[in-house]
Each structure stands twice: as structure tokens, then as C-alpha cells.
Amino acid sequence: MKYISTRGQVEPKGFIDTVLMGLADDGGLMIPEQIPVISPEELREWSTLSYVDLFLQIFARYVNDEIPAADLRELAERSYGNFRHPEVTPVKKISDSLYIMELFHGPTFAFKDVALQFMGELYSYMSRKNGDIIHILGATSGDTGAAAIQGVRGKEGIKICILHPHGKVSKVQELQMTTVDDSNVLNLSVKGNFDDCQKMIKDLFADLTFKKKYHLRAINSINFVRILAQTVYYFYAYFRAQDESGERKVNISVPSGNFGNIFSGFLARQMGLPINKLIIATNENNILERFVRTGEYQPGEFRSTHSPSMDIQVASNFERYLYYFLKEDAAKVSDYMNKLQTEGKIVLSQEDLEHVQRDFAAYGASNQDCLQSIIKYKNEYDYLLDPHTACGIAAYEQCSGPEEVCITLATAHPAKFDESIVLCEIEQEFPAPIQALFSMPQHQTIIDHDLNEVVRQLEAFYTR
């Protein structure tokens, strides 16, 4: 297995080199040269595996034996051994047509833990093996930062800097990042929105001299290993729901902002997992819904919503889907991305739009939709949704058919977004680790939206 760039200007790389590269050196995103296809017989064999064993089966198709099997198992067992549920990502039946997969049983109570606990262990493993210092750099709309910091805090040979939009994440998300006082962690709170933070990260990775000088590594979903680690729970979810769904088709509804989580589902389907509909659930920052409905991909006006982790207008992983949509033509991908840069939008033909609509359904939940879903499911099913999962539920109700089964991904514990829960006049009890955050001092540096200031902060951090 080799890995190539969506823009075609990078020599094929192995798995470890791909992980270390993060953003491709030509500005594209790294993808497998060929997606391995799992046979129906293998799928049946996989359907009864534990989460860790399923993880190992999937990763074995991608790592090229660059990590010995025993080492990979040790990394996986360490990554998922500290989750609060023995199944890692349990599936709960809510009604005859709805299941919820809970992805929030990791250390920071969000789905990002599923990939980032493994990435933290993997980077630490690479640092020990190669004797290199690794400088992890990322941007977050809330959950990635906390999960990434938790995955590498205190680890020798690794420093991590996370940018987050000042005042635009939930209080718990902010505290989970900024109450960490380890010397290898730097939190930069940027006066701007997530898209501003993300663009500065991409600009720094595109500066190949700076990237090489400081051994920059990516923790965002621009790094393919993030995508691959998330793919595992699509298989796990499908197998659990299929046990009870009989002959009904299985859909999966995915709260989506940066297109990474939904692309992991797309990758699972390309590997042979027979998901019926992949439903993109967005909020009022609904660029992805508009793309699926109209064929126009154009960032709009940024809106702050009750689901802040999805307050994103520029979806990084969209380029990966574009590559497969364009029949793996890297030159066309470059043309499309250049058009997006110069004209501010991409517009598809009617024929191409019909292709997209075969791949995805989509629904953009309003703030009111979000709150109403939280209230409804608490009252009718005694199940408390976080606001992102509530958007996924709203999309399920709009897009899943009466004879179909749907799994909605629960991407965070509701305690992380109590600002939304209190608007529903619902009181919740915080888990002890979250409650403890409110009495801890914070450590962050508030800066203007200024790339030069970010560089100055990084150079001081890396050289101390």
C-alpha cells in the first residue's frame, strides 16, 4: 500500500511517511493509492470481533507491515484501554428504526478521542523509534484540541500547540484544553473563528522550510490516520445494528463540520461496507448541505450556533471526496481547488450533482431544530442528546426512510455543551472529571488573528 496526494505532485509514500507528512507537500491531502476492498465473507467474519480486533484487521490493510503486528496491537490496546465503556463505542437502540452509537466514552468525552488517543500513542512510538522530536500543530473548533492534548500531554519527545477560536468554543471545551499545565502544551486562543485558525495551520504546513525546520506534524483530520481510525467505528456500528435490523437497509447520520467524520464513512463504504445512505448533518453553517442539494460549494457567512464544533464554512476533507468524485483525476482536483481559491466557489453540472446525491443525503438543522430534538428525545426516550448529536437526529428524521434503519453518531457527551442544554430547561449532572475542571486554573495565550504572531509564539515554544 502506497499513499499519494489528491493533487498528484508528491511521490508515493509509505504509511509512516504519510502520517509524518500530514498535509501533502503539494498542498493536497494524502490518500491510499488504492482502497482495499473487503469481501462479503470477510465482513461476516469481522462482524463478531471486538473493537480492538476489528481495528487491527482494518489497519493491517493499510500499514504495509511498517509497524510489527505485536506493536500495533499494543498501541491499540493502550489507546482504547482507558475508555469508560468496554465496547469503546457502544450502540444503543432508541426505537425500532433508530440506533445511537456513543462515541464519547474516551478521556475528553468526545468522538475525537477515538482517533486521537491512537494518534498520540502512534506519534510517541515514532518518536521513540526514530529518536526525533515531534512538534504537533493543529486547529480546533473545540473537541480536537482537548482530545489531541490529552493524547500526548507529558509524553517525551513531543510538543503540541493548538489554536482555538477565542470565545467560540463551549466553556467545557475551553477548560479541557486550557487547564492542562504540562510544559509540552501550548494553547493559543485566536481572536477569530475556526476557519481563520485552520487557514493559518494550512499556511504553516504549506511553508515547507518552516515545516521541515520544526518537524511539524498534523493532528487535524488532514492527517489520513485520523480518517482511518474513525473508519473502524462505522464497521462496528453497522455490524451491531445489522444484528437486529433484519433485511432493512442501514443508514448512518453523521454530525459534520470539517467533512472528516463523514469521509471516514465514505471510505468504509468504498471498502465494501454496505451502508445505504450516508447522511450529512450540519447546522446553520450549512455549506455541505447546500452542496448536496444544489451542487454549489461556496463558503457563506459564518454563524455561531448551539453546536459550535460544526461552526465551519471551509471543510478541509471535502478535497478527499472530490478526488474520488472526479474519478481519481489529480489534475482535475487541482483545477477545482484553484477555482475555489480564485472564484470562491465550485459549481457542479446536473449530472455530477446526481452523482453526489447518490453518495450522500444532507440536512442542515436550524438552532430551533437542534433544541427541539434535545427536548423531544429527553421527553419521549429519556435520552439526553448533545447539540451536535441533536443535529444528527434532525437529519435522520428528515432523510431516513420508513423502511430503513438509521444509526446516528453521538459525537459528544451533553455535559460538554451545557449552554445548549440549559436553554431546553433541562438540568444534567456533570461527570466528575468535567465538574473538576471548573476549579482549575487556565493556561492559554490570547492572540490576534495574525500569522506572524502565531509564528513568533511557535518559535519561542519550540526553542525553550
List the main descriptive attributes of the protein structure presented here:
alpha/beta; Rossmann fold; 20 helices; 6-stranded mixed sheet; 464 residues; globular; 5-stranded parallel sheet
How are the SSEs placed, and which strands pair?
Elements: E1 3-5, H1 15-21, E2 30-32, H2 40-46, H3 51-60, H4 69-80, E3 91-95, E4 98-102, H5 112-130, E5 134-139, H6 143-152, E6 158-165, H7 171-178, E7 185-191, H8 194-206, H9 208-213, E8 216-218, H10 224-245, E9 249-255, H11 260-270, E10 278-282, H12 287-294, E11 296-297, H13 318-325, H14 330-343, E12 346-347, H15 350-359, E13 360-364, H16 367-381, H17 387-399, E14 404-410, H18 418-423, H19 432-437, E15 445-448, H20 451-463
Concise account of the structure shown:
This protein has 464 residues and is of the alpha/beta class.
